[in-house]
Structure formats: structure tokens, C-alpha cells
Write a structure and sequence with these properties.
It is a single chain. The chain has 396 residues and is an alpha+beta fold. It folds into two domains: 5-247, P-loop containing nucleotide triphosphate hydrolases (Rossmann fold); 260-379, OB fold (Dihydrolipoamide Acetyltransferase, E2P) (Beta Barrel), CATH 2.40.50. The chain contains nine helices and 20 strands. The strands form four sheets. The chain has a six-stranded mixed sheet with strand order 6-7-8-3-9-10, with helices on both faces. β16 (321-331) and β17 (334-341) form a beta hairpin. α3 packs across α4 (131-144) and α3 (116-126) runs parallel beside α5. The structure holds adenosine-5'-diphosphate and magnesium ion. Residues 36, 40, 42, 60, 62-68, 396 line the site of adenosine-5'-diphosphate (ADP). InterPro entries: AAA+_ATPase (IPR003593), ABC_SmlMolc_Importer (IPR050093), ABC_transporter-like_ATP-bd (IPR003439), ABC_transporter-like_CS (IPR017871), Mo/tungstate-bd_C_term_dom (IPR008995), P-loop_NTPase (IPR027417), Transp-assoc_OB_typ2 (IPR013611). Its EC number is 7.6.2.9. It comes from Streptomyces spongiae. Keywords: ATP-binding, Nucleotide-binding, Transport.
Amino acid sequence: MPELDVMTERQTPAADSPPGTGTGKPLSVTGLRKTYGGGVTAVDEVSMEIAAGEFVTFLGSSGSGKTTTLMMIAGFCEPDSGSIVVGGRDVTRLAPQKRGLGFVFQQYLLFPHMTVWENVAFPLQLRDIPKAELRRRVGETLEMAGLSGMARRRPRELSGGQQQRVALCRALVYRPPVILMDEPLGALDKKLRDQLQTEIKRIQRELGLTVIYVTHDQEEALVLSDRIAVMRDGRVDQFDTPRELFERPRTPFVADFLGAANFLAGHVEEQTPDHTLVRLDTGGLLKARPQTAQAPAQTPRVRAAVQPGRLGLCPAGQGFCTGTVETVTYVGTLVRVTVRPAGGADTEPVRLELPAGRAPAPGERVGLTADPDDVSVFPDSVSAPELGVPAPEQGR
Ligand code: ADP
Ligand code: MG
């Protein structure tokens, strides 16, 4: 288990940084590349700058290169090319234990014969931390994670969530300036996951840690991250804040992956500095914000992307599309509605998410509206499979 190697590192604890400034360090990777035997390019030219104290998530479906990228940063996997700099120091050729990074993996191997206290104290013992200091640090870390009452228990006397918290404490106790986490909550049920997400976020903020977190779960990424790198086929499609990814997706893949966008086929009818007008195949005219990243005018066919939560209803005959309500599904305070566009028998129904109070009735004829600012336009050059829903993670 690589986690244990890291603990042989003997570095001065970062307790010397003044309180309040955080212990995190900036990290940058440039042109990282990894090809495995058999010609699989797992990671292809990944570059990013991560600020000190930032919470960054690698988000992508299974096989998109998240773990390989993280393992190269950690030093457990040698890149074919590229470099990794932590806190201004080039660590590309350093052994994992010399990089000053902490790890939490999905498989949190605690020492079964040791108590919670002993498990958490272990990394400090390896570092020859004086006894009094060790006691103080272990006590503080356990308290922060709400485990003070369980210090004498052994891992088998704890629930899954508690064990995962101990693993987190063991990584946090020596205050690494950067913590890498690979699907650390993947094995837990939803309620526990939600609870631990909050814990992780709180601890990260409190200590000002730099965190790189890997998940295939969009919601988890949105909840935790300052910025998200959306990965696909070993590349980063977009590295941005959750809001930018949602509101300004740069590729159809990002629009679909982050919010299950509706894609409406059509062509550009007019393009001005203020807006783009898309004539939909179903006949209506959809106004989108001006497009800069792409040049849809050069590709006659486009797809306009709108998140279900950004669509509104209006009287039939108005808006960019009129259709018939097919399904109405209540999901708590939200209602999911599908509308079959008139004159588009073979087009996908449009999906909406509305406040429950505004639900239409099945069979009702309605019009659809969207704020131009919520509409992204993409050249229609991407094949359908690329928009596929992510496959469930295979537990790598
Ligand atoms: P993720 O963590 O996003 O699921 P990985 O980084 O584990 O993705 O894998 C990226 C690609 O590299 C996949 O196609 C995977 O099959 C391949 N891969 C990962 N590890 C190895 C390995 N040790 N040997 C060969 N191929 C690998
Ligand atoms: Mg993985």
C-alpha cells in the first residue's frame, strides 16, 4: 500500500507557518503524459496551475485518466514527459515520500491491530515528533474529525464512515501542504458521503490545505470544489469554477456531464456581437448569447445546449418551441417535466426542472423559454457516443 511508504518521510511539520495563513502550497503540472503498454494513452498533455489552499477536483468517467494523473503527482507512477512543481520545487524525479504530499485512497487500510489513536499517531512517530507534541496533534486532529470518544477503539469496532474519518486523520495529522484523495468516499452510502464531504471541506478550509480530489460523481465535485478539471480520454476538457463549467461550458461534453444539458439541433440564422440566433429544426428561433470560443457561423449545423433547470414555461405558441407535456415527476421540491416538441416527432423530448409549484399537467400544450445567457451553441461536429452518460466507476 503506497500510503505507508509516504509515512516514512521525515519532514519538519508545517506547524511553523503562522496561524490563519493555511498550510497549503501551490502546485503546477505541465505537459504530463503517460502511455501504458499496449499503446493506451492514459494521460495526454495535462497542464494546470493550482493555487495554495485551493480545492481542485478531477472529474471524469471511469478510464478518463484521473487516477493516473494523481499517481504521477504523488510519484507512484512515472510520467513519460512533463513536470510537477510543488511550492516552487520541481518534484518530478523525487520519490513519493520526498514530495511532502498526503494521501487518502478509497481503500483506507488502517492497521487492524492498532487503536484509532495509534493509527493516527503512526505518521508522527515515524517522524520522531516529541511525545507531548504528538499527543497534542493527535488529540486535536481526532477532535476535529469528531472521533475523540473513539480513540481506544480498533478499526473493526468502527463504522465505515468512522474508519474513513480515521484514514483522513492519519493523512491530516502531519499537516501535508497538499493532500491527494482518490475517490475516498466511493465505498460509503449517500448519507455518510454527504456528511464526510462537509467534514472534508470544513477541515480543508480551516487548515487552508491544498487538496486534489478525484471523483466520477458530478454532485460531489460541485459541492467540494473551488475548481473542477473535467477529464475525458486523458485530457482536461475544461478547468474552471463549478459556476463557469455550468454556465459557460466549452465543449458539449462538459455541458452534458455537468448538468445533463438538452441539446437542440438547428443552424445559425444570425450572428451579431450581441447574440446568436439559432433556427431550430423544430421551427422555432432560439436566442443565445454571443459566441466567442467557437465559430458556429462556419459550421452550418449547430447544437444549442440548455440545462433543464434553466428552461421556463410560457403560453403555447410563444417562446422558442411549443410542445406537449409528456411526463411530470416530483422530486422533492422540484418537478422534472418532459415536453415533446410539436413538429419534431423524431426529436428527443426537452427536459425541464421547475419548482414544484409551477408544474404543468401531462398533455398540456406549453411554450418553452430560455434566457439567452443560459444558451451555449456548439458546432455539430461531435458524434453521439461522445455525449454518452458516464459509465459507473469500476472501483479502480
Ligand atoms: P480513472 O481513474 O479516470 O478511472 P485511470 O487513470 O485509472 O482512469 O485509467 C486511465 C486509462 O489507463 C484507462 O484506459 C485504463 O484502463 C488505463 N490504465 C490504468 N492503469 C493502467 C495500468 N497499470 N496498465 C495499463 N493500463 C492502465
Ligand atoms: Mg480511478
